[in-house]
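Service request form, structural biology core

Requester: graduate student, group of Dr. S.
Request type: structure prediction, single chain
Budget code: on file
Notes: please return the result as structure tokens.

Sequence provided:
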Amino acid sequence: MSVNRLNGSRSGSLGKICKLIFVGIFTLAITAPAFAEGLYPLGHTEGIPRFSDEHIQLRPPSDTGTRPPLITETGDLFLGVGNLYEGFTTPWGAVWQPQLWLFGTMRSSLQMFDNGVADTASEWSNRFDFYANLQLTGTEKILLGIRPLDLNRQNRFSGTALNDSRDGGGTQYFNLNIRTLFFEGDFGSLFPGLDPGGYTWLDYGFSVGRQLLQFQEGILINDEVDALGLVRNNIRLPGVANLRSSFVWGWNEVNRSNGVVNDSSNMFGLFNSWDMQKSSMNLDLVLVADNAEDGDGFYLGYSTIQRIGHYNTAFRINTSFAEGEDNAKVGTGILLSSEVSWTPQSSDDIVYVNTFVASGNFTQVGREPVVGGPLGALGILFASPSLGNFAAELNPFTDDVAGFAMGYEAFWMNHRRSLTLEIAGRKDTDGGGFDDMAVGFEYRHRLWQRVQWQLDAHYSLQERRRDGYGMRSELLYQF
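Core staff response, request fulfilled:
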């Protein structure tokens, strides 16, 4: 029998198995609360006790569990106890207490997927995020980050393809490319001698270097950029409890909406967040000047976050305007999204219903190549795991489309275990694309103090293509 016939037979069998699994899980999850008393909430429940009249003595640190150390802790321990290192006084008047902390996260995943277009693929992929944090004070630090096992592309992760359709064999992408390197601080803390009495406006925060920019939950921008940022906190205005305003200039490593670095781009952003009596609001303005043709763009994001009765809500408007013709880097469009969630009584479970409508071709200011598109913040079926060729289960990009993500997250064992069940879909509104719907789950279990196991699976119904499906098993170790 040929390899193609074997792959086809395996694909059909796995697809049927996945479909049966999902039908069973979602039938139980959705119908049980309505028809079987006591099965809702799904997670651990606990009654709400009255305040006790008994005096309860706080437990000493030795009885609350051991603090897991980092790879390296030079100077004061991270979240440790005891006397602090007295440090030294700099010539410009600041007191520095240097501490060097090394830490990281190792992820390793076995994954299989069929997107309904290419052959079924399976692979073993690995990612290691390693950081060195030089903490000088409570506000000043230097952070260095590398990812030595990948090159920041979906097909550039160290691992092994496990079937013939994806060039079987091992691949290694060892490197020491700097993914993060920035210095941040506060002028008032860094140069206290300029204002001993604390009467002038010197408390401006700043950050310079390669750093993550993530605004509007990653819908507007989700990218690591060489940038200079200035921020002013605690601005008081009538009726405003607190206003924070940030100016950011990015001059290098700006990944456009197509995930391709364009070092000829300059990004200028003004990001504002303020707290009102009943809601928090964000207004973000970004201009990108690109030397390449049809690369300039203007972006606006606005959101309001509040609690309405028992419901947590967030409503967002994100727009992009291309100076020239729409292209992969920048397009003209608007994305409206809403997020509504609530917690069932006597539990920590979360029920959520997220919806979106996009008119035109909304594009992000920039995105890291492995993180997916602007819909990734709205549901697990739109989010990329950012590890290997396993992309988002549903298309996370927005071009005349409407859709939803509805899910339930349950917790057990004091949040050591969680299960998220989700159904999501997207409807093409201009008739030129595809309509898709998917169901999936994400199970997480903390095995030991530093180790977490995660199991994901999904099944998608796709217009004018084969049904898609996939499954992932991932181990995560935090150093």
